[in-house]
Model the fold of this input.
Amino acid sequence: MRDVTPPAHVDVLIVGAGISGIGCGCHLRREAPEKTFAILESRDGIGGTWDLFRYPGIRSDSDLQTFGYQFKPWTRERVIAPADEILDYLRETVAEYNLSEEMHFGYQVLGANFDSDRARWTVQVRHRDGEELELTCSVLFAATGYYNYEQGYLPPFPGVEEFAGTLVHPQHWPEDLDYAGKRVVVIGSGATAVTLVPAMAKTAAHVTMLQRSPTYVISLPSEDPIIAGLKRVMSEQRAFRIARALNIKRQAIFYTLCQRQPALMRTIIRAQTKAQLPKHYPVDVHFKPRYNPWDERLCVVPDGDLFRALRHGDASIVTDQIDTFTPDGIRLRSGSLLPADIVVAATGLNVFLFGGVSLSVDGTPVDPADTVAYRAMLLSNIPNFAFSIGYTNASWTLKVDLVCEHLCRLLHHLDATGTDTFTPVPDRPLQLRPLLDFQAGYVQRGVAQFPKQGSEEPWTIAMSYAADRRRLIDTPVTDPALRFGRAATPAEVVS
Done:
């Protein structure tokens, strides 16, 4: 991707060229074509997560009917898809909506200040060559996700300096890492670990997944038989819409059952897991979490690939804690030794909200942790700023589509009313709680950085596509807690 200097001013400045940033650009093209916009990306290419992570087997853990955009059907056979197919899909989207001219690579956003008199953001940007620019925009959209692209989470492992083998983190996978015939230990039990283990087990001597505690793991087919059947009797577009709606409903029902009937769902998940493991396998040692289903994200394995690796003896699971690294591997609290040539620390992410951009309003710094999220996409007392953070219990892109469509509606409302700003302002005292009520380690480590949520609308975070659709699509953009205003200094005077 070539570096092109961004325009000095646009209506909407999008930070990030991943799923959210591309989605925002497409929605603006579709629903607000009169608006100018630019997409700034600090890296060299599009795709965000799907371009950054290069570890073996990287794939989606959501079905692509819901992970794909609502306006662009996922037409490939596999619906639990590898990263290269997802990147191809995103490149196709960029081409179809002619976004490449609006994308500017190698530009990191450092800070942004909103001038209330001018109703404009002034944004400080630094190019990779050291050049610094100052851009302006009417609306700033953070499409950065919520983790640090520069550094993954690596806990302080005792004795790691004594290890004579190779220690890697999935976020920084060495291109030349040769694990064929090697003994591999993958530390972790989340989505990355359950992806790595079966992928590496194909060529490694043996792969051991070392987990401190178990995670819920469910198997789903990589190809959806429902959409395959629908395609035989109707158009691809209609089949996609039906399959997407079915999968949204199926996800919602499954999540609701896990919340309301956790004991029942534990039993069902355990039965499915046991059926895919060797006879007499210690299911309750390695696959019985301490928490209820969906208190943390469930891990999906396509076509049961993890269970197949365990059945074939190419991989194994050890549930224990690390005592210390040794030159030859890892000694566990139980006293046993795990020999290893390569250790993969699939230990998670570091939270990094809004890409580390420093925000201020009229020169006064704003800490996002002191704000409250409005309709899960705006922040209290920060004008003309929007963000997208996806669901923890469903596909990320479902939320992206809703947020971006609502943002376009807000832009149209500004034009229709002759106003320039939208600012959420609490209209009553709020009982505050964490933005994400989720027990995953990366969330708990970084939750203090996040905005808060309130206990009632429109200040709540609904991990529900249906609820968000009602408030972001079916509800008017006007609300007592959302104030619209005019610039004191007309834009044409200061341009």
